[in-house]
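Model: You mentioned two targets. I'll fold them one after the other.
Researcher: Yes, keep them separate.
Model: Target one:
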Amino acid sequence: MRERNGKLLRPFLTIGRDEIISYAGQHNLEWVEDESNADTRHSRNFLRQKIFPKLTQRFPAAAKSLAGAAARFAEAHDLLDDLARHDLGADADDFPLSLARLRTLDERRARNVLRFLLSRRGVRIPSESRLREGLRQMLEATADRHPSMEFDRHRLLRRRNWIYLESIEELPDSR
């Protein structure tokens, strides 16, 4: 979770819950607790309520270490996005994606470009194995073929020398 994501701000991410509750109590502040926070069917709540207390009991610095690792992952993600922008060049920051440009990249960087573009469109990224296979099909198919891959209500497909992303919901023949 990022501290800033577009218009959404989360200024208290680096402050622990206990510290916030203590401050609120000292200053007689009232707050509304989201009842979904108690539902351990949600993975984040299960981790927060069942796993992290045991983890920090055994490893007191675990929360601080995990927060530091998360910050480094976020930084690495930003660097990968910068690399994708560089690899795409100034004129290409969305689909359709030039097959010729993709072919200039090694496989890791080509997958990074696909992940970047899918993320920009709000598309859930497919598993790494599906992404590898989709990229392989796009790059290796002969010119008379039009490979496609469906995932998350979207279709990645190649027509001539371009890779397109289409919403399956918008396609008349998808029902």
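Model: Target two:
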Amino acid sequence: MTTKNKIALSLVLHNEAAHIPRLAESIKKFTIKPAGMYVTDNSSTDDSPGLIKKFFPEAHVYFHKGNPGYGTAHNINMKNAFSDGADAVFILNTDTEPGANCLLVIDEFINAHPEFGIIAPMILYGNENGKTSIIQNYRTNVSLELGRINNIDEGKEINSPDLPDFEVVNFFSGTACVITKDTFEKSGGFDETNFLYGEEMDYSYRASLNNVRIAALKDARVWHYHDWSEKNTDGRCREYYYINRNRVRYFRKFSLKKGLVFFILNEIIISPARLWWTMRKGGKKFTYYFYLGIIHGLRNKTAILSELSEHPV
């Protein structure tokens, strides 16, 4: 069975070999076929591209010199998919496992509700034991002016009685989302200067300016196997550096002065508690990168943090 709408898949690779077999098996179980797979490899040093070709010989694989990040790679995929006639692109992290009916549910929703330009599947937690019934993201709204995210359903069970079949939201997770061709033409691609984190807030704001509607779907389910290990200090340093840097840059980019002032004042007011938290989570190294992100955001720096060593302010 094929989709009523031509929905292509977009994947970004950077040493994803550990995740690809699980993702590939889940895609092969789809009840309807995607309209092609578009993959950009950000200079993997493992066999990520080879694994993709092994599971999906028909995949369009592009190789990017260096690692330009999430937004640049997905933009390459979307441009190529839409040029080839796709109606929408399903963006997936490689550390995910979409359900067998996920694409079918999305396809039927787009067919019934063409007024929506972005579809946000329900994202659930996965762990070392496999799928869980715990929600990571479903109905998520933000204060676009203040940059504050309200993740309404995080931690709830999948069978909670208060979950609607779908709901209009103003924010989506880049872990798994669908962007239509019309939305891409109106709002463009992801901000390529972010590298990692913050792309969704930026895109959600631009979508709102273009009156693009976002729907969260309960029955389009994706499990996320993110590495939340407390021992992954380098990963935490990288994550919070970019989260803080790109949040500040978001406020600056769209002249959201109220949000920037509130964010900086809040960090000043809670600084004793924040210092205690950063030291507890990752010691001096994590504390350094946490605040370096804020400083670099204020200076509108866009350089990629290539390695976790000493980086002068």
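Researcher: Noted. Anything on target two?
Model: The mean pLDDT is 93.
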